[in-house]
């Protein structure tokens, strides 16, 4: 995973970690861990993509392969 892609996307939308977490229904700690390059469940990735206004097809842009 490109550990900075999620952070760059979040910042470009002017979302704080807490705001993105709230929109996605996950904890701010989860957003922080993902921004550091840690992995998560597919369901969590789906929630974050939708909260960013992206489709599931955009997952590689944010999370890599």
Please provide the ordered H/E string of secondary-structure elements: HHHHH
- What form results from the Cα inertia axes? globular
CATH topology-level name: 434 Repressor (Amino-terminal Domain)
Structural class: mainly alpha
Round the mean pLDDT to the nearest integer and report it: 92
The fourth-level CATH homologous superfamily is lambda repressor-like DNA-binding domains
The separation of the N and C termini measures: 7 Å
The CATH C-level class name: Mainly Alpha
> What's the CATH architecture name?
Orthogonal Bundle
Count of DSSP H/I helices: 5
Number of domains: 1
Give unreliable regions as ranges: none
Strand percentage? under 5%
Strand element count = 0
Helix content percent band: 55-70%
User: Quaternary status of these chains?
Assistant: single chain
As a whole number of angstroms, the C-alpha radius of gyration is: 10 Å
- Major beta-sheet overview: none
Secondary structure layout:
Layout: H1 5-12, H2 17-24, H3 28-35, H4 42-51, H5 59-63
Structure write-up:
It is built from five helices and no strands. By secondary structure, it is mainly α. The protein has a single domain, classed as 434 Repressor (Amino-terminal Domain) (Orthogonal Bundle), CATH 1.10.260.40. It is globular.
Can you give me a brief rundown of this structure?
The protein has 65 residues and is mainly alpha-helical. 60% of the residues lie in helices and 0% in strands.
Task: List descriptors.
mainly alpha, 434 Repressor (Amino-terminal Domain), 0% strand, globular, 60% helix, single chain, 65 residues
């Amino acid at each position: 995973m490109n550990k900075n892609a999620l952070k760059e996307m979040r910042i470009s939308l002017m979302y704080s970690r807490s705001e993105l977490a709230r929109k996605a229904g996950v904890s701010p700690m989860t957003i922080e861990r993902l921004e550091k390059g840690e992995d998560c469940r597919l369901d969590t990735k789906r929630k974050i993509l939708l909260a960013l206004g992206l489709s599931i097809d955009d997952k590689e842009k944010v999370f890599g392969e």
